[in-house]
Design brief:
The structure is a homodimer.
Chain A lengths: L1 E10 L2 E6 L12 E2 L1 E4 L6 H13 L2 E15 L5 E12 L12 E6 H4 L6 H12 L4 E8 L2 E7 L2 E2 L2 H9 L5
Parallel strand pairs in A: 1-6, 5-8
Antiparallel strand pairs in A: 1-2, 1-4, 2-3, 2-7, 5-6, 8-9, 9-10
Chain lengths: ~170, ~170
C-alpha cells in the first residue's frame, strides 16, 4: 500500500481543483481532484504535502490542517493510504496555464465541485470536510470506477444512501 | 439595446470559462461564462472582442470566428445584442489567479460545461457551437433567471424540449 497526500486549498468558498487526463487512480475519466501525490523516500506526510503543493501549484502553504486518512482499496489499482489535508493560507503565485491537456488548476466554488466528474468517494469526504471539523478515517473500496464499500471511523455505511446524501449539496 | 461580445476560447477540447460573482446579466448566481463585454464608443464587434479578451485574460487572439448573434430580452435587465465568437488561436500568458472571489479563468472540458451553473440559454448555444458550423441567430427571452422564449434562425422552438436535448451532452 502506497502513501499519498491530497490537499484541498480553500479560498472565498472555493477549492483549488485540478482536472487531469492522466492519474494513477484515474484509468478512464478526466476527473477533477485536489493537489497531491505519492510520498518520496524518507518523506513525512507533511513533507509530501508541502512538496506536492509547491510542485503542482507554485504555492507555499502557510496554514493547513490534516483532516483525515482515507484508505483506498481497488480490484484494479494498488491500494493507497491517502493523507487528506485542507489549507486556508498560502504564499506565491499559482501557475497559470495556457493548456488544458494536462493537469490544470482552477478555483471551483464548493457547491459546483459536486457537479463535476469526481470519484464517488471524493463526494463523501467533501461532505465530511464541510460538515465536520474532527479528524476522521475512511475506507473506500472500488470495483473499477464504482464505489462498492464505505466505512467511516470504522463503521460500515451504505454506499448508495451516503452518495444520495451528497446529492443534497446540489442546488438543483 | 446594448451591444456586447462573448468569446469561447477553445483548446484541447476545453473552453476557457470564467466564474464571476458580479455580472450585469447575473443578478443572483455565481454563473460560469465566456470572456467578453460591452462595446465601447466607436468600437466594432471585432475591436470589442480583441480588447475584452486582452483585458480579461491577457491573451491576444490570433484565430477566431464569429459564430452568431444572440439577442437577449428580459423582464429584469436591459436587452442585449451579443456577438458570439469562438477562438482557437492565441498568444500570451493567461492571467493566473490566487483568488476566486472575482472573475477567475479556467479551462473546462466541453462536456463538463453542461454540468456547471450557466444560463439556460447558454446551454443552447454551446450545443449549436458544437454541432453546427454555420452562422446563426438566436433570440433568448428570460423572465428573471428562467428562459421562457427561444428562437433559432427566426424559428420559434420549444424551450423545455430544447433544454432537454442539451442534457444528452452529459455522460450521466
Amino acid at each position: 500500500m502506497k502513501n499519498t497526500t491530497l490537499c484541498y486549498i480553500e479560498k472565498d468558498g472555493c477549492y483549488l481543483m485540478m482536472h487531469r487526463t492522466k492519474k494513477d487512480r484515474d484509468v478512464n475519466h478526466d476527473k477533477w481532484v485536489g493537489v497531491g501525490g505519492k510520498f518520496e523516500e524518507g518523506e513525512t506526510d507533511e513533507d509530501c504535502l508541502l512538496r506536492e503543493v509547491r510542485e503542482e501549484t507554485g504555492l507555499r502553504l502557510t496554514s493547513f490542517k490534516k483532516r483525515g486518512i482515507v484508505t483506498f482499496l481497488s480490484d484494479e489499482w494498488e491500494g493507497e493510504y491517502m493523507h487528506l489535508y485542507t489549507a486556508d493560507g498560502f504564499e506565491g503565485e499559482i501557475f497559470s496555464s495556457n493548456d488544458c491537456a494536462e493537469g490544470e488548476l482552477c478555483w471551483i466554488p464548493k457547491r459546483d465541485v459536486y457537479r463535476l466528474p469526481v470519484w464517488q468517494g471524493d463526494l463523501l469526504f467533501f461532505k465530511e470536510l464541510e460538515e465536520n471539523e474532527d479528524f476522521f478515517t475512511m475506507l473506500l473500496r472500488y470495483e473499477g470506477d464504482r464505489l462498492v464499500g464505505y466505512e467511516k471511523n470504522g463503521v460500515a455505511l451504505d454506499v448508495k444512501s451516503q452518495l444520495f446524501q451528497t446529492g443534497k449539496q446540489l442546488d438543483i
